[in-house]
C-alpha cells in the first residue's frame, strides 16, 4: 500500500489526471475493495476542492440518468 500511495502522490504532484491515476494505479492494484477505496480517496484528495465538487455532481447526474425509467417509444 505504501508504494502505491507514494506512486499516486508522485503522479498527482507531477500533474497526472485523476483518471490516469485511477486507471494506472488503483484499478490495476491487487487489493480488496476497501484498500482500493482508500487509494481512491487519497488520489481524490489531491484534486482542488472545486474540481472535486464538480466531478461529484457530474457522477451523481450520470447515476440519476442511468436509473431513470426508459420512456416507451411511439407505438411501442
The global form is elongated
SSE order: HHHH
* Helical content class: 55-70%
Distance between the termini: 53 Å
Q: Report the β-strand fraction as a percent range.
A: under 5%
Supply Rg.
Answer: 17 Å
Number of strands: 0
- Stretches where pLDDT is under 50 for at least 5 consecutive residues are none
Number of helices: 4
Structural class: mainly alpha
Main sheet attributes: strand count, strand direction, barrel closure: none
Average pLDDT works out at: 89
Protein architecture, described:
The mean pLDDT is 89. The radius of gyration is 17 Å and the shape is elongated. 67% of the residues lie in helices and 0% in strands. The chain has four helices and no strands. It is mainly alpha-helical and 76 residues long.
Secondary structure: elements and pairs:
Elements: H1 2-13, H2 18-26, H3 33-44, H4 49-66
Helix pairs in contact: 1-2, 2-3
What is this structure, in a nutshell?
The chain has 76 residues and is mainly alpha-helical.
Quick tags:
single chain; 76 residues; mainly alpha; elongated
Amino acid at each position: 500500500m505504501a508504494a502505491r500511495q507514494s506512486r499516486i502522490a508522485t503522479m498527482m504532484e507531477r500533474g497526472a489526471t485523476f483518471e490516469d491515476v485511477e486507471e494506472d494505479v488503483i484499478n490495476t492494484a491487487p487489493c480488496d475493495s476497501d484498500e482500493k477505496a482508500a487509494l481512491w480517496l487519497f488520489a481524490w484528495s489531491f484534486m482542488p476542492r472545486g474540481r472535486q465538487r464538480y466531478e461529484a455532481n457530474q457522477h451523481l447526474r450520470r447515476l440519476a440518468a442511468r436509473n431513470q425509467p426508459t420512456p416507451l417509444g411511439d407505438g411501442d
